[in-house]
Amino acid sequence: MSWEISGKYVGNCTCSLICPCPVDGVPTGPDGQCRGLNVFHIATGAMDETDLSGVDFAFFNWFPTHLAAGGWKVGAVVDDGASDAQVDALERILRGQAGGPFGDLAALYGEWLGLERAGVSFSDGETPSGSVAGRVVVTFEPLPGPDGGVTTVKNAMFGFAPEFRIGKGPGHPERFGMEFDGVYGETSDFTFASEMAEGAPKGRG
Fold it and tell me: How far apart are CA 117 and CA 51, in angstroms?
């Protein structure tokens, strides 16, 4: 099967600024672990004949230690406006069953927490935000750069994009037995596909 999705995402986690997970460092959350959430808006995408354009979803993660050690717990929430076919396609993608970057990451999953349906929305702009079940769970606040721009991370070992903006990520996600206050935040455009270009970054939850 062939698939590709592109759009924008915003996320937060419990790590102190700046989150070490993209460079495979030990999480700096209050318990030495990383609990996080990323909300994605698919601008364009499809799996075979199933159009995924316009679908929003949230991807929850629980990293017990540095990412390469595995044992991740992950789960997803797909917007309840998505069709059954769209939900099925996204579950196969996110569980790694359809190959691509999530297929690579599935080897690090310790437990798939499931897929749920609820209202999920993404709001774009200078301070992107994401909502799950009608409640804002992440708002991105960029860290300013010296030239008036924003601070970025580029070419990280684990990342949803080759370069992404970093900052604060206040919000209080609660799902899959996880409840936490967001500290670190990030946002960027993304493109994932069953066949990625050579040297493309690995995604993270």
Answer: 18
Instruction: Name the residue with tokens 């995604």.
Output: 203
Contact between 76 and 116 under an 8 Å Cβ cutoff? The reply is yes
Report which of 188, 189, 176 is spatially closest to residue 58, judged by C-alpha positions.
176
Q: CB-side exposure of 64: number of CA atoms within 13 Å?
A: 9
Q: Any bridge partners for residue 120, and if so which?
A: 132
Q: Which residues pair with 158 in a beta bridge?
A: 202
C-alpha triplet 141, 204, 171: angle, nearest 5°: 30
* Paired strand residues for 118: 79
Whether residue 93 has a cis bond before it, omega within 30° of 0: no
- Which pLDDT does position 201 carry in this prediction? 45
The pLDDT value given to residue 142: 95
Q: Give the whole-angstrom CA distance, residue 199 versus residue 46.
A: 23
* Per-residue pLDDT tens digits for 66-102: 999 999 999 999 999 999 999 999 999 999 999 999 9
Residue 38 · residue 13 · CB < 8 Å? no
Whole-number CA gyration radius for the chain: 15
Q: Which two three-digit tokens encode residue 5?
A: 């999705």
Burial class (CB in 10 A: 0-12, 13-18, 19+), 95: middle
Please check whether residue 113 is in contact with residue 205, taking contact to mean a CB–CB distance below 8 angstroms: no
| Token couple for 151 | 């601070």
